[in-house]
Amino acid sequence: MDYLSEYKSKLRTAEEAAALVKSGDWVEYGTGVNFPKYCDEALARRRDELTDVKIRGMLCYGPIQAVECDPEQKHFTYNSWHLTGYDRKLADRGLCFYQPMLYRNLRWFYDNFLHINVAFIGAAPMDKHGYFNLSIATGNARAYIDNADVVVIEVLEGLPHVYGGQEESVHISEVDMVVEGEHGPAIQLPSRAPSEVDAKIAANVIPYLCDGATIQLGIGGVPDALGMMIAESDLKDLGMHTEFATDAFYKLFAAGKLTGRRKNIDRNKCVFGIGAGTQALYDWVDRNPGVAAYPISYVNDPDVIAELDNFISLNSCVGVDLYGQVSSESSGTRQISGTGGQVDFLTGAVKSKGGKAFICMSSTFKAKDGTVKSRISPYFNAGDIVTSPRSQAYYLATEHGVVNLAGASTWERAEKIISIAAPEFRDELIKAAEAQRIWRKSNKV
Length: 445
Hints:
Elements: H1 3-10, E1 11-12, H2 14-18, E2 26-31, H3 37-45, E3 53-58, H4 65-68, E4 76-80, H5 85-92, E5 97-98, H6 106-112, E6 116-123, E7 131-133, H7 138-145, E8 148-155, E9 169-171, E10 177-179, H8 196-205, E11 214-217, H9 221-231, E12 239-245, H10 247-254, E13 270-275, H11 279-285, E14 291-293, H12 296-299, H13 302-306, E15 311-316, E16 319-321, E17 326-327, E18 330-331, E19 334-335, H14 342-351, E20 356-360, E21 364-366, E22 372-374, E23 376-377, E24 395-398, E25 401-404, H15 410-419, H16 423-435
Parallel strand pairs: 1-10, 2-3, 2-6, 3-4, 4-5, 6-8, 8-10, 11-12, 11-15, 12-13, 13-14, 15-20, 16-23, 20-24
Antiparallel strand pairs: 7-9, 16-17, 18-19, 21-22, 24-25
């Protein structure tokens, strides 16, 4: 087959691709590093021709020109499945609306309830067989492609080519238009250096890991610190099964810790759904037979996770109350991130033989006025979003220790949670627990 001729016949300018969008349409922008820059810019230039165009995206690192050009939202409305720092700033201006989800259900939403008129999807260049690789956005991309009336591939020449277990590519025959442009290297997202508190939390979690464990790491200082500590530990033959691949996993691989040899499924494979990091990460996953990208419907499926013995999930949160409810995505009514896969991995780790799920946080934070506040509160205030319900709370970790809430009564939870709070806040938390009738007089902290 002459795939190159078919490619050339579908090659269009970004302006021609943007012309596909009509007023009232739903437009898909894809995920993260695979952002379709030129299609977005061309759509923004059509602003005054269009009304009520709804755009969906996820983990966009910005800028999004269709949003920036329309601050009064007369023409475009932007919606995100998970907020980055850039998205958060848009949301603070009323220019980004969050879409709640359990991440494992994303494909189900699109297959059954959502419609896409035009999908602008970033992908790596086409190979000789006519396939575009969906790279580090494999986890979500086919859900968009398979449910769009029109599919436009924007070729991002700097993306790594990632081998996959499922849905890692799209064929030229499935594509309506192709857009090219000079993008340069993939977006670089270096990890911040872990703080001293991050390192203490990670040190508290390390003893719960064992040789041959399969690991999921969330995003942030504690997961990065844990990755560094594991790299320097005596642990060996670890596996990777994570929704989001970061440099922390590359460092584990470089230290010889990631082999996947003891995984029950996908043995010898480092499995992930989406990712972002530095060029070191992208070079590692590029055409690496030891790495496999899968759809999130697979990666985050609790039944799949359950097949992996000694599965360790480590995620972070904004705060916890004395009932064991976990808030990981909002500060009051202010949306700051998203549910992501936290609940998926809490559920899956419980079903794994020897599995454990950790929610980690510093015990305190500094407010805007400079005062130190406790991340552990008596109860959540109006507007605080509960990401993980108390019925699914498992291990909680701070720099002061780790507690297991599985099966614990309300008074046991209060006692355990207060034991890992900052010492200067424990007395007032005990008084609150007493007032809430979840404190035994015989409790010791």
